[in-house]
Amino acid sequence: MQQTFDSAVASVWAAAWDRGEVEALEALATPDYIRISKGSGKSMSLEQLQQDIREVRQAFPDLATTVDAVVVDGDTAAIFWTSTGTHRASFMGVPPTGRRVQTRGSNFVTMESGRIKQETVTWDSSELLGSLGIRHLGDALAEAGTGVVVDSLSGEPDPEIMKTFNRQFVTGVTVVTTTEGETPKGLAVNAYASVSLEPPLVMVCIQKTSSTYPALFASTHLGINILSNRQQGTVSTFASKAADKFAETDWHAGPNGSPLLDGSSAALEAEIRERFQAKTHTIFICRVRHAEVTDAAPMVYQAGRFYDSEGLSPL
Ligand SMILES: Cc1cc2nc3c(=O)[nH]c(=O)nc-3n(C[C@H](O)[C@H](O)[C@H](O)COP(=O)(O)O)c2cc1C
Q1: Rounded to the nearest 10 degrees, how much is the dihedral formed by the CA atoms of 255, 197, 223, 129?
Q2: Whose CA is closest to atom 4 on ligand 1?
């Protein structure tokens, strides 16, 4: 029994994960099979698992899996495995990094007539990103009630309310830049914050649908330009999808090549140190390497409108 189950697991794992023959799993699972992820607490059917495997294989086409050990005890078993693969295509919104990763997991299974009825896995797809050094905002993204801390006031405001809430917030406007090969790229961003002075850390939050995002994600450095009152044209260019946003914009390169826009109120170049995945957005945490400050007054932004900061009256 042990021997049969061992070899069945090894051959089905190789067929499904290494060769993409996901139908092979049907021979090893009961029709009402359920897979529970220990990390997220989410469960999935066999069909969903098959789809997950297809997505992982598309992103890591050279995936190679070893079943390290199978320990059977009556109707339960533990399967320990290791997979390696190269990140060749976009995965969970993360553009290909070309990096090779190794990930390990264990599945605790309950069997019925020699087939897997239920398994609890220590691994889920986001761990592949973790192995690439790309972290997810774990608990912040969990559904209410699945987090470690139970919030008695749980519940979430409607996204429309959040929009009106955000419209009450006054910010400046930045242009975040990078290069793709020799081509400068950038977009308007107001989700900028200083994180700490020592060390000098800053953060920006970028939507994954932005056309600048893949280049930004692949970059080691980025530029952050705080726009001045005189850059109304620049903000509308960089908030657009124009093909060459730099055609009419004068700029110079920072020490590591990031475009710094002439006429900005201030500009910095920073090394990207963390890329936290937040579903639709990525939060880039960056260590500042170079900063330039001018006396051009900064532009002010609130609720879709831009203001001249020099016209503000102190309270
Ligand atoms: C004032 C303002 C603030 C913005 N802030 C952000 C932001 O924080 N993050 C973001 O991803 N997009 C932000 N955007 C939207 C992008 O600038 C916009 O989607 C742009 O077209 C993206 O260009 P791309 O797709 O060429 O990269 C902002 C736009 C404006 C006008």
Answers
A1: 110
A2: 189
Superfamily in which the 170-310 domain is placed by CATH: Electron Transport, Fmn-binding Protein; Chain A (2.30.110.10)
CATH level 2 (architecture), domain 2-141 = Roll (3.10)
Q: Write the residue with the smallest CA distance to atom 20 of ligand 1.
A: 239
pLDDT digits (tens, 9 = 90+) for 215-247: 998 899 999 999 999 999 999 999 999 999 999
Over residues 258-281, the pLDDT tens digits come to: 999 999 999 999 999 998 988 889
Residue minimizing CA distance to atom 18 of ligand 1: 239
Cis peptide before 199 (omega within 30 of 0): yes
Would strands 281-293 and 201-207 be described as parallel, antiparallel, or unpaired? antiparallel
Query: Could you identify the atom of ligand 1 that is nearest to the CA of residue 206?
Result: 11
Q: Which of 63, 59, 36 is nearest to 49 (CA)?
A: 36
